[in-house]
Amino acid sequence: MMKKLSLFLFILFTPFLALAEESEGLVPCKIGECEICHLFVLLNNVIDFFLFTIIPILVPFMIILGGVVLVVAYANPSKGAEYISKARNIFKTIIIGTVLVYSAWILVNVFFQVLGHVEWKDYENRWEIIDCD
Fold first, then answer.
1. What pLDDT, in 10s, does the model give residues 50-86?
2. Is 36 helix (H, G, I), strand (E, B) or coil?
3. Is the four-CA dihedral 102, 103, 104, 106 of positive or negative sign?
4. Cα 38 to chain centroid, rounded
């Protein structure tokens, strides 16, 4: 069931990756005008897209899925322990995965701040150090 749900969610959110409008989507340049610096901007856009768009939408759906499995566990006494174990695993995986992803993002940003590449006051424009003109 989890594999089918994961595949469904992947297919559902894949069209968002093709947002290639002029400097409003993930791709920061038009075809034929891209330079190597745009690769870093694209990488940043993809990471921000997953961290701040996909994950905040996906986590509540997975919590709801865990809740549904938990409700089914109490509705079906013969397999209740098995379903409760699955629900606990879903909740544990959600918590560990979310904490891991965002703590890694924080650690990488703190690392770059310590190196002096990113100032918090200019965090939004951190890739403008590379001249893309």
1. 888 889 999 999 999 999 988 888 888 888 888 889 8
2. helix
3. positive
4. 21
